[in-house]
Design goal:
Helix content is 8%, strand content 55%. With 319 residues, the chain is mostly beta strands. The longest helix is centred in the N-terminal third of the chain and has 23 residues.
Length: 319
């Protein structure tokens, strides 16, 4: 004789298993991440990018995103990232609280990773940990051309092979601002994040992306508490009317939780600013932990006919 109670329990168990199966099959490994930052800055004339004249409270490059991957089979996984800049707590940006950042979808496997969407060009990617004042008014993008994030691109990044990695950005003609196909290619030797090796060096070239053609060599070396970085770049406009050279030198030293920093950048191509530009920056970080940093920075920008300076106190939290 069949036990009805047992049958009902078995059927319920089977139903629950079937219901849960799609979620198990479709489950993706993902994480929500971001950066919350607040800065009080006093800027002299407002000539430089990323800082307005006067005393301002800003949220420089604060962002939130989701990234992850989903295993398709033993050889290939789908990878994705959706990231936006968050400007909403600034009074002037309440009508447009978000701006597009890296957003893409692609595949990853033994061949490396290939993604389609908005992404940092591999020319920008080549800077690694060179910039001591990344995403502030003292960012090297203040004077150095080619630090671009572009949409409608295809990005390929190889896996590391004997400490070497190759990456490539391609923009089709019809999607490119220059109305011709463009690319950026980068070869890196060493660990770009300085985790597995205390050094890295990169060679990079960009052609017909965001109206420039340029080549650069960049490198960073970390010896105990001291970190040194250098960059040389030759740039020219696609129409050939502007050209010149750029340089960056950076240094930092870790003293327990304190990190004093210096940086010098110069460019005479007039591609990023309207004339030859020179920028000196100095700062002091206090690192509470891996997620939280307080900082003080001062930067001075000199152009042929204008000048600007900015003093800023900030707090940055990464999650």
């Amino acid at each position: 004789m069949i036990n009805n109670t047992h049958v009902k329990r078995s059927a319920l168990t089977l139903l629950c298993s079937i219901t849960a199966l799609p979620n198990m099959v479709l489950a993706a490994e993902y994480s929500v991440y971001g950066k919350a930052e607040v800065q009080i800055a006093k800027t002299d004339t407002g000539v430089m990018r990323y800082a307005d004249e006067g005393t301002q409270i800003d949220a420089p490059f604060s962002r939130i995103g989701i990234k992850g991957q989903h295993t398709l089979n033993e050889y290939v996984s789908a990878v994705f990232k959706y990231e936006v800049q968050v400007k909403g707590f600034e009074h002037d940006d309440t009508n447009e609280p978000f701006a597009a950042r890296n957003t893409y979808l692609g595949l990853k496997g033994a061949f490396g990773e290939i993604v389609v969407g908005r992404n940092d060009t591999r020319f920008k990617y080549s800077e690694g940990k060179l910039d001591n004042f990344n995403e502030t008014q003292a960012d090297i993008a203040q004077v150095i051309a080619g630090q671009d994030r572009l949409g409608d691109t295809i990005t390929y990044t190889s896996n590391y092979w004997h400490n070497a990695q190759f990456s490539f950005t391609y923009a089709p003609k019809d999607d490119n601002k220059d109305n011709q196909a463009g690319f950026a290619a980068t070869l890196i030797y060493g660990d770009r994040n300085l985790n597995n090796t205390p050094y890295y060096i990169s060679l990079s070239h960009i052609d017909s992306l965001n109206n420039i053609k340029a080549s650069r060599i960049a490198g960073v070396y970390k010896f105990e508490q001291l970190q040194l970085g250098a960059l040389y770049q030759h740039s020219e406009s696609i129409d050939g009317t502007k050209s010149g050279n750029g340089y960056v030198l950076s240094a930092s030293y870790t003293l327990d939780k304190w990190v004093p920093k210096l940086q010098f950048a110069k460019d005479d191509s007039a591609l990023r600013q309207e004339s030859e530009a020179t920028q000196w920056s100095t700062g002091l970080d206090y690192v509470f932990d891996k997620q939280t940093t307080a900082y003080l920075l001062y930067t001075d920008l000199d152009l042929e006919e204008n000048a600007d300076s900015s003093l800023a106190l900030g707090l940055r939290y990464k999650f």
